[in-house]
Amino acid sequence: MSVTESDVLDTLDTITDPEFRRSVSSLGMVRGVSIDGANVEIGIDMIVGDHPGITDLQEAISNAVTALDPALVVTFDLGVMNEQQRAAVRESLVGDPTSTAGSQAGEGRAIPFSASTNRTRSLLIASGKGGVGKSSVTANLAIALADTGASVAVVDADVWGFSIPRMLGVDRAPTVVDDMIVPPSVHGVRCISMGFFAREDQPVIWRGPMLHKALEQFLTDVFWDNPDYLLVDLPPGTGDISLSLAQFLPRAEAYIVTTPNPAAQTVAQRSAFMFNQTEIDVKGVIENMAWFTGDDGKRYELFGAGGGADLAEKLGVDLIGQIPMQVALREGSDSGRPIVAEDPTAEASLVFAKMAEWVGNHAPTKRGHPELKLV
Ligand code: ADP
């Protein structure tokens, strides 16, 4: 069969840009297609000059076109959109910014996730203190949820200890299109972090109100595209940031990460009380560093045992998972190759998969509006 330009255009309709989350055709990226014998030249207008993942995108397009006829040779004529085209992309993704009342002043902007009609489940991942593995849990649970087929986003709100970009292996800043922030996507998870705007080796010395604003912007100006789950890695403890988020995301569910030693429970309990006071539902406890399985197959409870179960009982919620200590988990967090993505059958990865299943099976029954509470 001989492939026509319209066949190629139809094929381009099926190629989705992973970060802009629409087909290259509907984004207006396809400038034209011309066929001369076996040569197919495709004109592509990148949305920005350093369009994320453009090489992968070209490869995906080439593969799809040569699948029509393996004899075809695909070449690209790359260009960059002008301001007008970019504004059109923004408008097609999130609407016209000038039509949103108050958007210029940064006031009155609605946080989409707080609306009772919004489909996204916001999961606040919290801990009483630092170092218990809260960020590692957030990153790996996010990937495990994405592996169930869900669309997943992560907000790294651990503003003083931001580590999510490094853990997920994101090495580039978000793309900014006409004031809209498009989060980078890795392992099927989109993420935004203060880490993109501050260097890891520099202290973050923003005052509370600025952080509150920055978080609000993370929730309003980022192109999240209605994910199934929005995981929020909270700073440890019960500070202002957690309170801001409880206010921004009144329909959120909280999960408390703790270690198994009984002494850690008092401090973990405090963060649970904070959620109670802000009327956020604590849904479950996650025990991290539960044991270490030696080469002899025995479990060594290095940090004691029973802390997670005790805390869950005190709070009247489920202990949704016990994550073992694994060197590969630590290494994966340090090197940006999270264990769940790297080795899905590892002992810890299987626990994350189970927890993702648990979360999927326990959608909230409570609504954000008090008058609608089903309890
Ligand atoms: P937090 O966010 O609570 O401060 P992190 O997720 O940054 O904690 O974890 C602290 C350190 O412990 C990191 O180096 C991380 O890789 C490591 N870690 C966390 N959980 C585990 C685990 N289950 N096994 C091995 N190392 C872990």
Notes on the protein architecture:
By secondary structure, the chain is an alpha/beta fold. It folds into two domains: 5-92, 2-Layer Sandwich (GMP Synthetase, Chain A, domain 3), CATH 3.30.300; 112-361, Rossmann fold. The protein contains twelve helices and 14 strands. The protein has helices at residues 5-12, 54-68, 83-94, 134-147, 164-168, 208-220, 240-248, 264-277, 307-315, 327-335, 339-342, 347-361, and strands at 30-36, 39-46, 73-80, 121-127, 152-156, 175-177, 180-182, 185-186, 189-193, 229-233, 253-258, 281-293, 299-300, 318-325. The strands form three sheets. Strands 4, 5, 8, 9, 10, 11, 12, 13 and 14 form a nine-stranded mixed sheet that branches. β12 (281-293) and β13 (299-300) form a beta hairpin. α4 (134-147) crosses α12 (347-361) and α8 (264-277) packs parallel to α9 (307-315). The longest helix is centred in the N-terminal third of the chain and has 15 residues, at 54-68. It is globular, with a radius of gyration of 23 Å. The site of adenosine-5'-diphosphate has 19 residues, from α4, β12, β14 and α10.
Please tally the β strands and state the result: 14
Radius of gyration: 23 Å
Helix content: 25-40%
Mean pLDDT: 89
Give the distance, in angstroms, between the N- and C-terminal Cα atoms.
62 Å
What's the number of domains? 2
Q: Mind describing the biggest β-sheet?
A: 9 strands, mixed
Structural class: alpha/beta
Taken in chain order, the helices and strands follow as HEEHEHEHEHEEEEHEHEHEEHEHHH
Can you say what the CATH homologous superfamily of the largest domain is? P-loop containing nucleotide triphosphate hydrolases
